[in-house]
């Protein structure tokens, strides 16, 4: 085979349903590998909610948007097939930002070797962006303490499920907010969460009061939505809010109003937004922190696998519908 498939972003995403016309599927010739470069054959690509921001023209963000005509940005995992780089050899497993393409050519910058004896889809589900984001956000921003209560929205998602399990392993009471009874059952019965709340219920305030009788100390926010204000109302003094994502606002022209500043003042709440690109230099130490939890069986996951590179286009819409069960990845 001398060619491979890639998908370029050719129009900006305008919100709402992802229109396939914003992408262009192209065939490219497998390139020659120059000195200092490596060629990687990707096996799996990751789909993440952050992509909705990357597809807009917004330059006032934590990372520049994908330029029109460029390969769509994503993290992935694969095998080095050709190496003219002293730090890599053919056969090395690597993960990093490689984009929506079957082959990746680069200088190795930003790629990390994978040594854990786990399948590729498991590595991408746990040790790539989801696990790194959960580890950085929980431990270095949320600063949880044993005996505290943590609530995480999007609790059945790739980041939220890991956040909850890490917190539970460290002795916290953990509450997860999800969008279906199936997901509620999964995080409680399989992952060990103490309680689950379906945000589509009519009695959210009552459920929250029952799940957090001693208030909430750490709020790991992935979704936004009406329950956000109720959670802030239940925060204890000196609570910490980790704002990681707001998937409910990614498809809206007008973001929902945030919680009252009065609660922030009265309870001396610390609120911090964070994104992983600020912390990519910490990847080795974050992996060192996360790995023991995974290898001792304290972190479980499930992966929602889509087949074929073009499935990534419609796959993005699963984030809006909540139709994915577990970490969304694309098998190439």
Description of the molecule:
The chain is α/β, with parallel strands linked by helices and 332 residues long. 27% of the residues lie in helices and 26% in strands. The chain has helices at 51-54, 120-126, 129-142, 158-169, 181-190, 204-211, 227-233, 261-266, 283-295, 311-315, 318-321; strands spanning 3-9, 23-29, 38-46, 75-83, 93-97, 103-106, 112-113, 149-153, 173-178, 195-198, 216-221, 235-243, 270-273, 303-307, 327-331. The chain is globular and about 60 Å long. The longest helix has 14 residues, at 129-142. Strand 12 (235-243), helix 8 (261-266) and strand 13 form a beta-alpha-beta unit.
Helical content stands at 25-40%
What overall form do the CA principal axes indicate? globular
Q: What fraction strand? A: 25-35%
The helix-and-strand class reads: alpha/beta
Low-confidence residue ranges? none
**Level-2 CATH architecture of the largest domain:** 3-Layer(aba) Sandwich
Radius of gyration: 20 Å
Instruction: Kindly identify the CATH topology of the largest domain.
Output: Rossmann fold
Give the overall average pLDDT.
Answer: 92
User: What is the C-level CATH assignment of the largest domain?
Assistant: Alpha Beta
Tally of individual helices: 11
Give the topology string: H per helix, E per strand.
EEEHEEEEHHEHEHEHEHEHEHEHHE
- Our measurement of the CA-to-CA distance between the termini, rounded to an integer number of angstroms, reads 15 Å
CATH homologous superfamily designation of the largest domain: NAD(P)-binding Rossmann-like Domain
Number of domains: 2
The number of E-state strands comes to: 15
Report the sheet with the most strands, covering strand number, pairing sense and barrel closure. 7 strands, mixed
